[in-house]
Prior knowledge:
The complex is a heterodimer of chains A (339) and B (315).
Chain A: H1 21-25, E1 43-44, H2 65-78, E2 83-85, H3 90-107, E3 112-117, E4 120-125, E5 130-135, H4 146-151, E6 157-164, E7 167-174, H5 183-186, H6 191-194, H7 206-215, E8 223-232, H8 243-246, H9 258-261, E9 262-273, E10 280-290, H10 291-294, H11 298-309, H12 313-318, H13 325-333
Helix pairs in contact in A: 11-13
Chain B: E1 5-16, E2 19-26, E3 38-45, E4 50-56, E5 66-72, H1 80-86, E6 93-96, E7 100-101, E8 111-117, H2 122-134, E9 138-144, H3 153-160, E10 164-168, H4 177-182, E11 188-193, H5 196-209, E12 216-219, E13 230-234, E14 240-243, H6 249-255, E15 274-278, E16 281-282, H7 290-295, E17 298-299, E18 305-306, E19 310-313
Parallel strand pairs in B: 8-9, 8-11, 9-10, 11-12, 13-19
Antiparallel strand pairs in B: 1-2, 1-6, 2-5, 3-4, 3-6, 3-7, 13-14, 15-17, 15-19, 16-18
Amino acid sequence: MRVAPKEVETFRDDFTYSNSPEAIKRFPFPFPEDEYRYSVNMEPHTPKGGEGSAYEHFLDIDEHYLSEMTERKLVLDAMPHRCLAMDHMELACWDMLERLMTSLAEDYSDYFKLTIEGDQWTWENKLLNIHDTFTFGDSSTLPKPPLEYIGCQVQGDFALLDQRDGDLFLDAGMVTCPADWSLAFDAGMSFKEWHGPVPMAHNEGIFERALKYLTAMQVGSPIRRLNWTLTVNARMDTSPETYHEWGHERTSVTPDNVGEKVYLRVEVQVMDRMPRSNALMFIIRTYLISLEDIATNPEWAKRMHRTMKTLPAPLIEYKGLSRYHSMVVDYLSQFDPAN
Amino acid sequence: MSNQIKVEVASICQVAPTIREFTLEAIDDELYPFSPGAHVVVEMPSAKKIYKNAYSLLSDPADTNRYRIAVRLQETSRGGSIYMHEQVKVGDQLLISPPSNLFSPFWLAKKHLMLAGGVGVTPFMSYIPEMLRRNTDFELHYMYRSLQTGAYKNELSEQLGDKYFGYDSDRHTRCDVTELLSQQPLGTHIYICGPESLIQAVEEAAQTLGLPASVIHSEEFAAPKPGMPFIAEIKSSGKQVEVSAEDSLLEALEASDISVPNLCRGGVCGQCVCTVEEGDIDHRDQYLSDDEKAAGNAIMPCVSRAAGERLVLDI
């Protein structure tokens, strides 16, 4: 049985966000081996794990849907520039809208319905009580521009990458729950430019290989990879724009509260070629789980202990874990007595 | 390729003395929409072997009901274009790849200057509807030989009016490329699709005029041309692969169950690049830079061959 959206919880202030036992069970745990190793780790984005799995469908709609859509609205109301689309990305935005609407309507027909009659499209989102008819390709017929309109109805952040001169450029997106990066800052950058701060990987030719792979991606063959970091409190919006609100929280971690206060933050990143514009759509779907909840699965707790213990120093620094990494390792060590 | 699309040839029409147009319709699934400048790789199962050639899609990208391609009968064809011209009939089924794009318009350009040579007009056929929709500034300069090529020249002239310029070298009208390039406003991007000689002439003119290489875009799919037979030795296994005069190196490797990632099979996309340990290379691709070609340690096996009798590949 798939997890159904539950009532709105918060990702700020009183942090009422929680994972149900079912949500814990389906959490996309990111560590495939005991020792941490940097890799591009891409695989075809095809169904995996059966019914209810986070990889069952192209997009994963889960119990946090209403909470995340509420959080997104709070961010965009306060900072409208967290969503942007350069003029030449208009067609790519419609590509994205088409891809998201068609897959939602196909995979979650109880919640979403799309009716296409020529260029007249009717979209129903029963979870958010949305019912609109518009002309495909004509932004003036939508209540909001296409990227913002559909982006506010799907969990995860979105970037649309323009492909030119064998490179990718971050020319459109909606980013309200980033792991400490800013769309406004990265806007217009090339692939290597926006990956500039990533340590270690530059010398290993990882970005050259990844870029070659991504620019050759074909329509209809999406891929995914997992990325992870740690976040203090169940805060979705850890952006540079709001650093003053969350940066200091790293000092609030103590050996006593580390299990409930520190969250493993996993991004299921999906890349998909857009047919009409040749842009690449990049979805960053973020999942949060507390260390306490991880500890309910002894295998995960053991594995995570070993991974955290072998994490190279430059990555501890890059991921912003320096202040509390040792407390995380100590906490997890109780689940891995052999190590 | 498992993601191939099965299509039916809905109609065939002669659009120039040596060029045939094929209209392809989906059989099982719907066709993907595509972007201006996209191509598909068509699989041609002739009696002798399976050819795979890339052809630009020339229909309006907004039309997802059918794809159109145009195939020129090549004088030096190994069999691909002969197969399309002589064997393929209306109602036949073909396998094609999903559309991919190595020649997308640079939409940030202030003006788009398209230079087409012969059948090289095809990618621009899909640029033009989108450029008209976006109301961008563009010109099409179309060079052809009316005794052989010149497909769609009348309809383009009619549709585009003063944005269209035709040059028929069989009637001694020629395009002065240097003069043309010198008249363009700053921010113009130049797109060339046509024979190597045209691409070279434009690149030389651009260099003379001091235009940056970043505003010049070209695409020329080379069907692998035959050459002298040679032996490719695989360094890791010591395996000797015989490459006949008619086969490409990529085809010979595939026939020996050595798989190399590949997409366009026409020397453009760069996916099949292999490291060369020993032996001289006859480079025939558009992908490697002049410096990389001169260095002589990489080959595009889809079109390029050994310049001698033997190559050692580090794959």
